[in-house]
Specification:
The structure is a homotetramer of 230-residue chains. Chain A has 7 helices and 9 strands. With 230 residues, chain A is an alpha+beta fold. In chain A, strands 4-3-2-1-5-9-8-7-6 form a 9-stranded mixed beta sheet, with helices on both faces.
Chain lengths: 230, 230, 230, 230
């Protein structure tokens, strides 16, 4: 994240204006909503420790995302713990570093034209992404809950949830994410092995819905014995 | 749900009157109570995504139900997200479409003279309705908790919880629901395969109690190993 | 519970005085505390449906208990849903019937000189009391958590948690409870088969602690695989 | 804990001054934060009964810790239920006895220079510390969640979580804790067999993060089947 350095002066002047401008209002609204989502996910145990990270697109031209800073308790996020980031992961509003996984958020926003990206790190996704890693993904089929995924009209839909090997090299991992999105058009999320879920939506409400649906289905699989028999 | 079209003028005039009339009061009271129930169920993970739907009879002659609109987060329902529906699933108050499963609610209200119908979509019901589908249902017997079901006086009661194949054709599925209610008099609920639970009661309090009891008993079965040995 | 009939006049006059007298104050305090406990237990899923019941001794001479009425949602108890009951299970304050299991509360209060009796009905106790019924009880040994039971000073303590066959005949079951308490001095609770846990304490705080400890240990056993291997 | 006797006069005068002095402010701040943490952990079921205990260093020279009194419900701690303790486990502020395990807190503070020590007592740690006792510990490797442990930079990190036999002799157990910390430099926590987790951090926020991470990873192991196959 060496690109995030910039002058303190510029940062301060941006901060002073953050509430007055239209973009400042969009930023504050997105941050407020992301903090609410984080609180709910933390209560469910989906973003324990400092795991998980969340972003929302607040401008398309130029591309701007509100995104969580790195290393925070996602259950009690404050407005000043969010950053505004441009298309190259530079911080253009707020203080601190964006999450190390900011490049994955950008890859997803570009790859599927998402308006919001949510990354959770639940027990269910950690268990299943380990037990099913050798199969390259998890097939979800026959569940009514699938109908809640955008564009899905029947429980007979077969959703493929790819599992990518985890990595600490975000450039390399971001490339693999982009390739996965191209190779599997129409997917609604993917797993990083023993790491967690990435999903997205046109907006935050849709992305939150996708988190609930995919976390639910992974819990169903584990409780059905899938982790033991994989 | 093509029957739900009606003029904007009629809708608006109904809406303006919704709080003043006795039926408007009953509608608002039912909606308020259903929203509370939804919030509690969402916290327990029984209506994640936009799953689940709820209704309450607010008039018998003519038949009128307060029912959730389709596609909503059941954890944060607002009064304006409820509809009033007549005996043919026409919307007579409020905006939006009723849940796709409105016809099932009507089939239940007519079939067992219910005053409230609650549909939850838990991990437990999804797991068990899959593992026991080939048996056509689940037998619950010997549990003290059964005594909480209306009309049951001993833990020795044997409750049959039928499992119906899931479908997206609500007319066809509604017919199968009606047949099941006639074929199994005295049941307190049924499952749709890999979809969830429908239960009901004379009123909302009783229907909520039935949800808690049947969800509890399904969790007991899964934790006793029933899903693996089915 | 045929003993509970009494004149409406006497009931009303008692009610009017309930807050002013010292015993009325003790009754109201106990009811308030029991309602709080009920709310917490309901949130944990330990008293779903209308399961569970709670009592506290508010006078020894003569014996008087504050106890929940029958058939209530234990997550939202109001003061007027509690009764004061004498040593013969007659209602001497409040309206409604005491829980059908009032005779078990009295048997425990007399048998071990308890000041409070709490009955929960969790998934864990339902599963284990079924899987271990043929063994007549469950042995708990080696757990540090045992030290929280009153009078226990080491994790090496062996706690025997008897399992009694369930019954709807409360006179008969009350007799068996009394015999169990005499036959197993020093126990801190017992299970009714596929029904739930009874535990107690010198006061409400101690009884609540015993619920948390015994429910915890039963969850440990189930998650350790005890239900499958019994 | 016989060292904790001291005159009532000294205690009272200390108490009167507790809010005005700088050390009193630090004590009150630490106690407030520990109470919040306790409430959250109790809600998750990690400190049921009166299990668990928490401390924070409020002064290094001389060494002073704010620590929970013994035998309390950790879900509703009040300021007056905290004690200030010196390097010899003498109480120098507040009333009551420190937790029996105060000597373990001191051993950890000295052994790893911790600023806060948190002890939880979850189902997960109880199950795993029993099933893996013969192996002397649990290896955690490959999980992204490990990166949240202070100083860990990759999921490929191998964390060793030692399991110590439980004991009621705190002097003896404190010695074994000190030896374990010397023998396994760099560990972030340890388990007491069928008792629970001890972890720590430079401050309370870090220690709380370590609790969430280690409890999460133990839950992952149990749900992956580790308890059965150990």
């Amino acid at each position: 994240m060496k690109k995030t350095r910039r002058s303190g002066n510029r940062r301060n002047s941006l901060k002073a204006n953050s509430r007055k401008s239209p973009s400042g209002t969009r930023f504050a609204e997105a941050a407020t909503r992301l903090a609410e989502i984080g609180k709910g996910f933390h209560a469910r145990g989906w973003v324990l420790g400092t795991s998980g990270n969340f972003s929302a697109v607040i401008s398309r031209e130029p591309l701007r995302l509100a995104i969580t800073s790195t290393g925070l308790d996602k259950g009690s996020l404050a407005l000043e713990q969010f950053l505004e980031m441009d298309e190259a992961a530079n911080v253009v509003r707020g203080e601190g570093r964006p999450s190390a996984e900011a490049l994955l958020h950008l890859a997803i926003v570009r790859g599927v034209d998402a308006g919001a990206v949510l990354h959770t790190h639940s027990v269910w996704s950690t268990v299943l992404s380990g037990s099913h890693a050798s199969q390259g993904g998890i097939a979800l089929e026959g569940y009514e809950m699938l109908k809640g995924l955008e564009g899905v009209g029947t429980h007979k839909h077969r959703e493929w949830l790819p599992i990518l090997e985890n990595s600490q090299d975000m450039v390399e991992l971001g490339d693999r994410v982009s390739k996965t999105l191209r190779a599997s058009p129409g997917i609604h999320g993917f797993l990083l092995r023993e790491h967690g879920l990435y999903t997205w939506g046109a907006g935050l409400q849709q992305a939150k819905r996708h988190v609930e649906i995919l976390e639910f289905l992974m819990e169903v699989l584990v409780r059905s014995g899938a982790a033991q028999s994989a």
